[in-house]
Design brief:
This protein is an all-alpha fold and about 120 residues long. Helix content is about 80%, strand content about 0%. It is built from six helices and no strands. The N and C termini lie far apart (about 55 Å).
């Protein structure tokens, strides 16, 4: 049986290959929309009031929340290339975990309102 690390590396390699293939395919198709998206990415991730590193960390957190493996891999690699440390990556992931869990308490507020509309509130 393959070791977990070996399986994880295979998955990362597969994601990278698919991303590179798709990028090349879109470029060959000369898609106006894809080309515009690439220009938008370049503009969005360039240094500004926020550094490229910080923008990549934000994107990494969003990738976690949206469960996008390719996004997580790409933006983590880009963040590290932009100077992110392992501790910065860990803290980004921790913020993403919090943002995935705690908002459920906000959504549950509606459920509480429904419950209160269905049951006599005086028994709570």
């Amino acid at each position: 049986m393959k070791q977990l690390e070996e399986l994880a590396q295979e998955k990362l390699n597969h994601i990278s290959l698919r991303r590179k293939w798709a990028h090349g395919r879109w470029l060959k198709l000369n898609s106006k929309v894809y080309n515009a998206a690439m220009k938008m990415e370049e503009a969005a991730f360039g240094d500004g009031a926020l550094s490229k590193k910080h923008k990549e960390l934000i994107a990494l957190g969003i990738g976690v929340i949206t469960d996008c493996d390719s996004c997580m891999q790409w933006h983590m690699e880009q963040a590290v290339q932009a100077g992110a440390t392992q501790q910065e990556i860990i803290e980004t992931l921790e913020v993403a975990i919090e943002m995935g869990v705690v908002p459920a308490t906000v959504h549950a507020r509606f459920a509480l309102e429904v419950m209160d509309s269905l049951f006599d509130r005086s028994h709570a």
